Amino acid sequence: MTWNGSTRAPDGRRRAAVIRHLAFEDLGLFEAPLIDAGWRISDFEAGVEDVVAAFRETDLVIVLGGPIGVNETGRYPFLKTELRELERRLAAEKPTLGVCLGAQLMAAAMGASVYAGDRKEIGWSEIELTGEGRHSCLMHLENRSVLHWHGDTFDLPANAARLASSELYENQAFSVGRHALGLQFHAEVDSTRIEQWLIGHTCELTSAKINVPLLRKHSKIKGADLRAAAPCIVRDWLAGLA
Hints:
Elements: E1 14-20, H1 31-36, E2 39-45, H2 52-56, E3 60-63, H3 78-91, E4 96-99, H4 101-109, E5 114-126, E6 128-129, H5 131-134, E7 145-154, E8 161-165, E9 173-176, E10 180-183, H6 194-200, H7 202-207, H8 212-241
Parallel strand pairs: 1-2, 1-3, 3-4, 4-10
Antiparallel strand pairs: 5-7, 6-8, 8-9, 9-10
Helix pairs in contact: 3-4
């Protein structure tokens, strides 16, 4: 979509710009609590639409996931724009949330290294919250499973607080002040729509030798807990911004 240069919608609501890299990797469970909190949401397709104004002229930016990597700027030049605009936005301490690729882009924009991990982490499992994490909006994920779906990882950015880890990867979530939150895992995914992920990522699942029927089964079993927790995560993070 196009951006009209105003952080406010015509009805006076605050605007949130959502940067998507893949159509079905959308806001998912994060959408309803944002709307309930009075936000007007505008979606932008990375690589197709001009996202510069969205990064610069909105109250909140949410950068979502996708199957490409931060270091693939030669193949996907639009990533350079995202990195540049994230660097500007984060330096100005403007509210920014990143999920999976979005979190990796945030980390890179703050000078941290992003690189291929030892193995892909795909499937449902619990994260281990740090002390800071237990006192953050992620407290609602205590003893709950989230969906992991990544092969790259990142170093913790300078001045960031680690909020969560997993058995495979130390940096699963971080915050910088109150304005920035990066989530390597997917807390936004609506498990009732998991079939879109299983179809859209079939090549990756086959390459990684993932048991698709088992992943589908786990999504059905574990997704309900995440549907209960996700709105609370968003609500508490937005409250911290205020």
